[in-house]
UniProtKB/TrEMBL annotation:
It comes from Geotoga petraea. Keywords: Lyase, Metal-binding. The lineage of its organism: Bacteria, Thermotogati, Thermotogota, Thermotogae, Petrotogales. This is Class II aldolase/adducin family protein. The keyword ATP-binding does not apply. The keyword Lyase applies.
Length: 215
């Protein structure tokens, strides 16, 4: 593989980071970057810790393999559908972290309780309906539920975060996890929860796009 060396190196380094950060276990999850009309994506069933640039697969938006000797992630359709609909998205990360997985089997949506979540994720994080993995139904459901936000929890499955930098999608995954952890622990206390009001939620989100988000 000779194309997009810089992007493949960046993706390989990001794969090692999400493994080190415990956002993924074993070979589960997937990671991609879009370059023009092509997708560089992690292969199916391969360790993130051992990933090299040559292990990555380059496909087009229809899923045809352009470069690479491995099989692309079984969730390539989900990545493709998000890229087709979200022209602002260059990178997609799908993980199976602990608290997002708990939310995926217990919640229908998760409110943003803290400022960083409200700014980066919006007022709440939606949860998709369950669809079988690797199917077009799952791809379409994920696209519809994520909408214009940059995170969605997949029912009985995991988490998807999107953005325009590796740092953004990894940070979003950590913030989703922190927000859900706080929500679960607060519910356990049974003392009521102080929510951010709608007006302040909107102001925080607007402030993020105007002052914090870096392309």
């Amino acid at each position: 593989m000779k194309s997009f060396l810089d992007e493949r190196l960046e993706l390989t380094n990001a794969c090692k980071k999400i493994a080190n950060d415990n956002l993924v276990k074993g070979t589960w999850g997937n990671f991609s970057i879009k370059v023009k009309d092509k997708i560089i994506i992690t292969p199916s069933g391969y360790s993130y810790e051992l990933m090299t640039p040559n292990d990555l697969v380059i496909i087009n938006l229809e899923g045809n393999i352009l470069e690479g000797d491995r099989v692309p992630s079984s969730e390539w359709m989900m990545h493709s559908e998000i890229y087709k609909k979200r022209k602002d998205v260059d990178i997609i990360l799908h993980t199976h972290p602990k608290y997002s997985s708990i939310a995926s089997v217990t919640m229908d949506e998760i409110p943003s309780l803290i400022e960083d979540s409200a700014m980066i994720l919006g007022p709440y994080i939606k949860v998709t309906d369950y669809k079988l993995p690797g199917t077009r139904d799952l791809a379409v459901e994920t696209v519809n539920k994520i909408g214009d936000n940059n995170a969605v929890v997949m029912r009985n499955h995991g988490l998807v975060t999107v953005g325009n930098s590796f740092n953004e999608v990894i940070s979003a995954a950590h913030i989703v996890e922190k927000n859900i952890m706080i929500y679960i622990e607060a519910l356990k206390l049974g003392k009521g929860i102080h929510y951010i009001n709608d007006e302040d939620l909107k102001m925080l989100r607007d402030k993020y796009f105007k002052s914090y988000r870096q392309k």
